[in-house]
């Protein structure tokens, strides 16, 4: 089968492309913006990429066009208009995946506003180390595997389950296509303001997911999340394994100790101990979710803990991109205010109290571009010593939104202006934390080059 993927460089569609290629299909694709790590992965697989969505690609005549949710109707996507005019076969990415990859597998789906990519990667690594040879599709590149997706030879398949809509012609959340037997509900906050009116609308989509889990399946739910409890209160027909709860909740998995070294307890009973390199309470909770999900497919908690000791996080999750004159430059995917705050807090707990954190971010997600959560940014950034925001592409005034932070925050008109401001402020011992869900205009390389010019080395 020849499939041509529109929007191939998105993390999900790129992973789908890798799976299709591994399965022996001919895969081509197109996108408007190509940036690492997905572009590097696709090129390494020998997948032919076309820049843009030109109608001339209709002449490729694939067996089916697979449409990413970046694609809309209208003049921005002439290829899509040509597909519709020609009556050519097309489908969505989640639908193609469900029919050609997930059918017949024990699907473990990881959903939640935050931590999906990291938790999915943890779970895949646990099952791999347990000898289950899982397939997986992750919205990033787990460093343990070096690829974002793999078919796997075993029965299990681990997938990052996104609540964003499927395609312009299918407005259901992606995850309703996956039909998991094990569903992780990691957390739930308002996000994706471009497609959801409020948190209640997202809760409805999560309940659609709950409805698809069979009676013999398991829902792994964060006991701290009121929104998730509301979802389950609407109706639940499967076993529920909670994590992160209180001691008196005898069946709930919980952690005792610091995030980098903690006991895993079920009620008062210690069932495992995790010692690893990740930081932050959020990763401690992610680990509990992965351990609980793995237990549903027969992996004991102590086996999971042993696997997590060798877990390497996903690229773009507090990834150190370089160091010059004692100044470290990190890349992180955080873009929602809660994720920004959690990421800064995790780094703050790791660094020396005398060292500064310079938070450099661009509000790039559709929700942030709309300004829906701009009022939360001072709260998200308050643990940083200095913050730098990219104004480019925003319809709202970042200076006004960050005014409560006073001189602690600066705004740049574009990436180059931001780089100039950061380089003027940076000094040895600083940690430059770049946060974006996009390529951020190559800011990491620009900062490292600028630091070398200023400090040498």
From TrEMBL:
Keyword Manganese appears in the UniProt entry: no
Domain of life where this protein originates: Bacteria
Broad class of enzyme this protein falls into: ligase
EC number: 6.3.2.45
Pathway as given in its UniProt record: Cell wall biogenesis; peptidoglycan recycling
Keywords attached to this entry: ATP-binding, Cell cycle, Cell division, Cell shape, Cell wall biogenesis/degradation, Ligase, Magnesium, Nucleotide-binding, Peptidoglycan synthesis
InterPro entries: Mpl, Mur-like_cat_sf, Mur_ligase_C, Mur_ligase_C_dom_sf, Mur_ligase_cen, Mur_ligase_N, MurCDEF_pg_biosynth
Assigned protein family: Belongs to the MurCDEF family. Mpl subfamily.
Name of this protein: UDP-N-acetylmuramate--L-alanyl-gamma-D-glutamyl-meso-2,6-diaminoheptandioate ligase
Organism from which the protein derives: Roseateles oligotrophus
């Amino acid at each position: 089968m020849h499939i041509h993927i529109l929007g191939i460089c998105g993390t999900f569609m790129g992973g789908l492309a890798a799976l299709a290629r591994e399965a022996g299909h001919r895969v081509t694709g197109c996108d408007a913006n190509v940036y690492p790590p997905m572009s590097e992965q696709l090129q390494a697989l020998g997948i032919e990429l076309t820049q843009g969505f030109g109608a001339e690609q209709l002449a490729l005549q694939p067996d089916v066009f697979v449409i990413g949710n970046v694609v809309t109707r209208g003049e921005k996507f002439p290829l899509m208009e040509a597909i519709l005019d020609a009556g050519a076969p097309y489908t969505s990415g989640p639908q193609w995946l469900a029919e050609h990859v997930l059918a017949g597998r024990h699907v473990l789906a990881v959903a939640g506003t935050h931590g999906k990519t990291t938790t999915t990667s943890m779970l895949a690594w646990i099952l791999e180390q347990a000898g289950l040879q899982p397939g997986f599709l992750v919205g990033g590149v787990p460093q343990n595997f070096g690829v974002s997706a793999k078919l796997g030879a075993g029965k299990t398949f681990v997938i990052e389950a996104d609540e964003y809509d499927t395609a312009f012609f299918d407005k259901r959340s992606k995850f309703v296509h996956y039909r998991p037997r094990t569903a992780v509900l990691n957390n739930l906050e308002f996000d994706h303001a471009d497609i959801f009116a409020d948190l209640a609308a997202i809760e409805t989509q999560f309940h659609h997911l709950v409805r698809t889990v069979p009676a013999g399946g398991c829902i792994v739910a964060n006991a701290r999340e009121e929104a998730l409890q509301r979802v389950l209160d609407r109706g639940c027909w499967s076993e529920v394994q909670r994590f992160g709860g209180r001691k008196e909740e005898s069946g709930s998995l919980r952690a005792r100790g610091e995030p980098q070294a903690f006991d895993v307890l079920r009620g008062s009973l210690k069932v495992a101990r995790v010692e690893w390199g990740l930081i932050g309470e959020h990763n401690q909770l992610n680990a509990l979710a992965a351990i609980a999900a793995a237990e549903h497919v027969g992996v004991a908690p102590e086996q999971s803990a042993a696997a997590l000791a060798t877990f390497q996080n996903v690229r773009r999750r507090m990834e150190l991109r370089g160091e010059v004159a004692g100044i470290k430059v990190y890349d992180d995917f955080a873009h929602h205010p809660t994720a920004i705050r959690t990421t800064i807090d995790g780094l703050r707990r790791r660094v020396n109290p005398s060292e500064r954190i310079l938070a450099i971010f661009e509000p790039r997600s559709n929700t942030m571009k709309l300004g829906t959560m701009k009022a939360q940014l001072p709260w998200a950034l308050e643990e940083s010593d200095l913050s730098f925001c990219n104004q480019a592409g925003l319809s709202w005034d970042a200076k006004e939104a960050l005014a409560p932070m006073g001189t602690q925050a600066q705004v740049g008109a574009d990436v180059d202006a931001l780089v100039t401001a950061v380089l003027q402020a940076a000094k040895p011992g600083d940690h430059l934390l770049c946060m974006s869900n996009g390529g951020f205009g190559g800011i990491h390389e620009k900062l490292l080059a600028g630091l070398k010019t200023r400090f040498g080395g």
